[in-house]
Amino acid sequence: SAVISQKPSRDICQRGTSLTIQCQVDSQVTMMFWYRQQPGQSLTLIATANQGSEATYESGFVIDKFPISRPNLTFSTLTVSNMSPEDSSIYLCSVLPAAHTEAFFGQGTRLTVV
Amino acid sequence: TQLLEQSPQFLSIQEGENLTVYCNSSSVFSSLQWYRQEPGEGPVLLVTVVTGGEVKKLKRLTFQFGDARKDSSLHITAAQPGDTGLYLCAGEVTTDSWGKFQFGAGTQVVVTP
After folding, report:
1. Phi-psi region for residue B68, left (φ > 0), alpha (ψ -120 to 50) or beta?
2. Which residues in A lie closer than 8 A to residue B99 (C-beta atoms)?
3. What is the b/e burial string over B52-82, where b = at least 16 CB atoms within 10 angstroms of the residue's CB?
4. DSSP state, residue A26
5. How far, in Å, CA of B41 to CA of A21, rounded?
6. N or C: which terminus of chain B carries fewer CB neighbours within 10 A?
7. Other CB atoms within 10 Å distance of the CB of residue A76
8. What residues of B are in contact with residue A99 (Cβ under 8 Å)?
C-alpha cells in the first residue's frame, strides 16, 4: 500500500493568485497523477506527473495553467495558476506503486477561489 | 467525453434493502475499478476486475465485469448506513496507458437506518 499526504487540505484564494499543492508518498511509486473533481462531479485526469521530465497533460489542460513538478519518486506538486472562480474544485493526487496495481488517492485539496 | 456511464445517479434506500449500481461503456477496458468516496476524502478502492465475466465478492458487495469488458455492476446486499457514499467506477483504457483511469460520474448512495 501507499500512504499519501496532500497539503493543504483546503484553501480559500483570491482570483488572480496561484496555489501550489503538494503530494508526498511514503514509498517510491512508479506513476503519479493529478485529478480534478468539480463540485458534484466525477474525477477528471489533469496530467501524469513524470519524474525528471515534463508532465503529460490531458486534453483541455495546459502547462501554463497547471504546472507540475516531480523531482523524485515520492513527491509531486501541482500549481493552479492565475486562479478564477471556475478553478474552485477538489484536486486529488493519485499514485500507482507499480504496473497494473491498485491506485491510491490522497485526501484531496478543496480549493475555493473568491 | 464521458466514456463511462453510471446509473442511477442517486439512490436512497432503507437499511436492509439491496441495491445495484451499473457502469456501462461502448469502450473495452483492460481493467475496471470500483471506488467509494466519502465527503472530504479521496476515493478508496473497493475492487479491481480484469477478466471478462469475472465476479468478485467482498462481504456484502458483489462485483461483476461484463463478458465483453465494457460494463460492470456493483450489488450490495442488506445495505447498512455505513455503505453510504459516492460510488465511482473507473476504467483503465488500455494496457499502454496503465494507471490512467476514466471515471464515471458516480452514484451517490444514501442508506438510512
Report:
1. alpha
2. 30-31, 33, 48, 96, 99, 103
3. eebebeeeebbbbbbeebbbbbbbbeebeee
4. S
5. 16
6. N
7. 26
8. 98-99
Q: Which residue in the set A44, A96, A106 is minimally distant from B42, CB to CB?
A: A106
Q: Of B20, B31, B105, B21, whose CA–CA distance to B70 is shortest?
A: B31
- Segment B52-56 long-range contacts (CB within 8 Å, at least 24 positions apart): none
Question: What residues are paired with A31 via a beta bridge?
Answer: A96
The distance of Cα B100 from the centroid of its chain, to the nearest Å, equals 17
- All residues of chain A having their beta carbon less than 8 Å from the beta carbon of residue B23 are none
The grid cell for A53 is: 521530465
Per-residue confidence of chain B (113 residues) as pLDDT tens digits?
557 899 999 999 999 999 999 999 988 888 899 999 998 888 999 999 989 999 999 999 999 999 999 999 999 999 999 999 999 999 887 656 666 788 999 999 999 99
Instruction: Report the C-alpha gap between B23 and B44 in whole angstroms.
Output: 17
For the record, the C-alpha cell of A88 comes out as: 474552485
Q: What is the pLDDT of residues A43-68, one digit of tens each?
A: 999 999 988 889 999 999 999 999 99
Indicate the length of chain A as a whole number.
Answer: 114
- Are B40 and A107 in contact (CB < 8 Å)? yes
Cell of A97: 506503486
Measured between CA atoms, the residue of chain A closest to residue B43 is A105
Q: Do B43 and A106 touch (CB under 8 A)?
A: no
The three three-digit cell numbers of residue B38, written as one number: 466519502
